[in-house]
Task: structure prediction
Amino acid sequence: MLSDKQIEELDGFIKERTGKKRYVHSVNVAYEALKLARTYGVDENRAFIAGYLHDCAKEMDIDRQRELVEQSLFPVDDIEKNAPALFHAIAGAVVAHKELGIEDMGILEAIRFHTVGAPDMSGLGQVLYLADLISADRDYKDVKKMRKVAYESLNGAMLEALKFSVSDSVKKGNAIPVSTILAYNEYVQLKNEKREND
Ligand SMILES: [Fe+2]
Ligand SMILES: [Fe+2]
Result:
């Protein structure tokens, strides 16, 4: 486990950058990510750190977020560049890297893709994506079902989550980022392969 000093540093960093509600969400996601990591054999400390930091840029001025998106260490497609609601994940990885000195590319990548998903996601990336959806403060129609699925199968839960994300974008008339579509197709494929092998 991380030392008290390391946790205090994370906590201070987030407290400075978030209001009460998002601070509580960040802490909840950190502990949910830790639990999921333990369940699926992913490094617990890295999951905890990624969870704490994932929304660190969300309350920044949107123009500042846009500037940070331009500095991304990871690819950003044109759809994301035109979707301000998605900036914070891309900007968050930049902030964690530059302002907190996080060098672990796996943690930065998990933060960067926590809103859109990606093909070939690491266990850490999947754990963060799901922890963000099922953390204790989350309250939406199917949250109980999602919480159950998240602890049954990582791939199954990712497919459920991406199905929701894709259909929600369609319903709202939003474009779908390329990495989301690639991720969705990948988990459909995995499900089909599993079915064939069963
Ligand atoms: Fe987020
Ligand atoms: Fe979040």
User: Anything to note?
Assistant: The domain at 4-197 is CATH 1.10.3210.10 (Hypothetical protein af1432).
